[in-house]
Amino acid sequence: MAEVVKFEDVRVIRSGRPILDGVNWSVDETDRWVILGPNGAGKSTLLSIASAQLHPTSGQVTILDEQLGRANVFDIRPRIGFASSAMAKLIPEDETVRNTVLTAGYAVAGRWNESYDEIDNEQTDRVLAEWQLENLAERTFGTLSDGERKRTLIARAVMTDPELLLLDEPSASLDLGARENLLASLTDYAASDFAPAIVMVTHHVEEIPVGVTHALLIREGKIVTAGPLAESLTAANLTETFGLPLDLTYHGGRFAARAAN
Ligand SMILES: Nc1ncnc2c1ncn2[C@@H]1O[C@H](COP(=O)(O)OP(=O)(O)OP(=O)(O)O)[C@@H](O)[C@H]1O
């Protein structure tokens, strides 16, 4: 198995305070990770580094065999798919769903005068079908519901066949039906032999799709636990991470958590 992400003693200091501290973490190419932690724990910062958008203050980070700080980040970034609410803000409201996905090949948001090959159009059709967006292909991004936007952003993120897929809260703010549909799509995608390594951030264990293999729990910039799901996602570790007694249940590959009585 090849390592696609490796953090060694990573530290990020902001306003004189460590927001990531002593982080050691590695992701293999067949892994599907979930990152869980309370607000402000450092989850988005972790993803910013893994997507080669941010350099740590100290420590060493290797992404897709390239060391941050030595390699050209513009060579690394196109190999990573990243779907986040920050990305959503960059998509013009009048961009169609089709063009939102298609333009991923040029890493631009907003179609202008780029020329695309037939192969790009075929790949777009394939990805739109895979993420059940065919019927929305000509709709503009600004008219989509939250769930449709999330789906479109994930389709855009996988359009370039990335070697690493990062998803920042893919099912946050979705209604129950939209959440369950999206989780089912993520489960299908993650089960494919062709899917890349996946890392997704979430606030809720209920939003962990079936098929996730590993969990990283983080609190105040420090890893509480990181490893195979069965060992790391326990009531005791969740309790430590969120700072209150929690019960955890597992049924049919899915988790639920609530305050312990
Ligand atoms: N530029 C900055 N200057 C000062 N503090 C910062 C800066 N950027 C991030 N932080 C702080 O770092 C901490 C971690 O932020 P981060 O966004 O990574 O957390 P998170 O776990 O993703 O939170 P959330 O779940 O609320 O999205 C927060 O306390 C945040 O306020």
UniProtKB/TrEMBL annotation:
Pfam family, one: ABC_tran
Domain of life of the organism encoding this protein: Bacteria
The keyword Transport belongs to this UniProt entry's keyword annotation: yes
GO molecular function, one term: ATP binding
Residues in ABC transporter domain copies: 5-245
SMART domains found in the cross-reference section: AAA (SM00382)
Key words, A-Z: ATP-binding, Nucleotide-binding, Transport
PROSITE patterns attached to this UniProt entry: ABC_TRANSPORTER_2
Protein name: ABC transporter ATP-binding protein
